[in-house]
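Exercise 7.
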Amino acid sequence: WRIGVSEVGAGRVRAHQWPSIGRGGISGRMTASTTGPLARVFSWAALAFVVAGCTAILVLIYLVNPHLSGEALRGYAVVVFGLANVCFGGLLVRHVPRNAIGWLLITAAVVLTITEVGTFYGAYALQVNRAGPGGVPAAWLSTWSALPAIGIMVTLMVLLFPDGHVPSPRWRILAVITVAYILFFSIGGAMSSLPN
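Solution. The predicted structure, written as tokens, is:
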């Protein structure tokens, strides 16, 4: 690991050398302006969303536990997974924004959080508090929205690890097919589970 400072002035660091993972080892150079405000805002917004969503999941598990006891363990696992992924992904996005791994980690965390909120809110609105609004759309959302996150974690993350790029240009066609596969099954799942 090589971390240095190219210029120090007026009591502040103007440029840093951050480590990044590449095919030739761990190296890389990134200035303070490289991260940009968009990456920082996105990572903080995603963190706030996942924390709020995980809090909602825990509250909903408590409310629906007698009716959906078999799903509680999965909900706890998603809370841990979501918080870990959004934190680690946020660090990558802020420090190595050109590495797609960080963006994919955040996306997977957000999508799975939405899925679990839909699962437990749908159970709450349809089984516990039958007067709760939005139960049917929430239950419908939970039937297919996990597919993109699973596709990202199982295929794209493996394909792009560790530096956010495919191993060689010949692998790009596989990346395109993977994205098309995820979109196809996500849209198909959404259409096939539409409420009557």
